[in-house]
Specification:
two-stranded antiparallel ribbon; 245 residues; 9 helices
Length: 245
């Protein structure tokens, strides 16, 4: 099996040094979920580049750094060598930076933004630290928090309201995130928890095809990678249309 097949995620770099921080970012997934912020913003009646940029930075800090640092602290799923102290600083710094940006946004948008800030912080802590005995660490909460919520926040930051367009966009992101969760859970099971695999497929022509772990992982990893970059491209296309590029 290839070295990549032994790593804790298809996007994980070889362990050690700055490579661990790259792995911690979950780059394809972070870009995927930041795309939902862009999609929500582009669906709004008007598109303000400054608000979009601030929103993207806030979500990158809160999700890309804060949530993923907490996730690594809670069980070391990515098997990085980053110290607990460094992860704690990254988590606190990421969340604090996101909150500061959000509070700054209230001076432009208004206090109506506060529930979005509170919901984001709660989602990061409750999901990644598995509060309430893990009752919120579910597929539905994942899809709502990292799929629907970024779309709604992006839309609200632009339009300063939530309407049917925002809801429909959020539902689409929710569905995509549920698909992501379904694929990634199975891939994680095979990659991280399964020590050996013996699968035999009996074909109609009487031949037997044997699958190893790498072959079982390939369709999940390929689908997740394709969904991540295609969602990013779709988000860019929406912005291009709005800006008439």
């Amino acid at each position: 099996m290839s070295d990549r097949g032994k790593r804790p995620a298809f996007y994980a770099a070889a362990p050690g040094g700055l490579r661990d921080w790259w792995t911690l970012l979950h780059a394809p997934y972070t870009a995927w979920h930041l795309s939902y912020v862009v999609i929500g913003s582009a669906l709004a009646p008007q598109l303000d580049g400054g608000r979009l940029a601030a929103n993207l930075v806030a979500f990158f800090l809160g999700l890309g750094i804060g949530a993923h640092a907490l996730d690594e602290l809670h069980g070391r799923p990515l098997r990085t060598r980053i110290s607990d102290r460094a992860l704690q600083v990254a988590a606190a710094g990421g969340l604090a930076g996101a909150v500061v940006l959000g509070l700054g946004g209230t001076t432009v948008i208004g206090m109506e933004l506060l529930p979005f800030i509170a919901a984001a912080v709660f989602a990061v802590l409750a999901y990644n630290l598995e509060w309430f005995h893990g009752r919120l660490h579910t597929d539905a909460v994942f899809a709502a928090s990292w799929g629907a919520f970024p779309v709604l926040t992006g839309y609200f930051a632009q339009a300063e309201r939530i309407d049917i367009v925002a809801v429909l966009g959020a539902l689409a992101a929710y569905g995509l995130s549920r698909a992501q969760r379904t694929l990634s859970k199975r891939a994680r099971l095979i990659r991280r928890d399964v020590s050996s695999v013996r699968v035999e497929l009996g074909l109609h022509d009487g031949t037997i095809r044997r699958l190893d772990r790498a072959e079982m992982l390939a369709p999940f990893d390929s689908a997740l990678l394709a969904l991540s970059w295609s969602t990013v491209v779709f988000a860019i296309a929406l912005v291009a249309v709005r800006l008439r590029i």
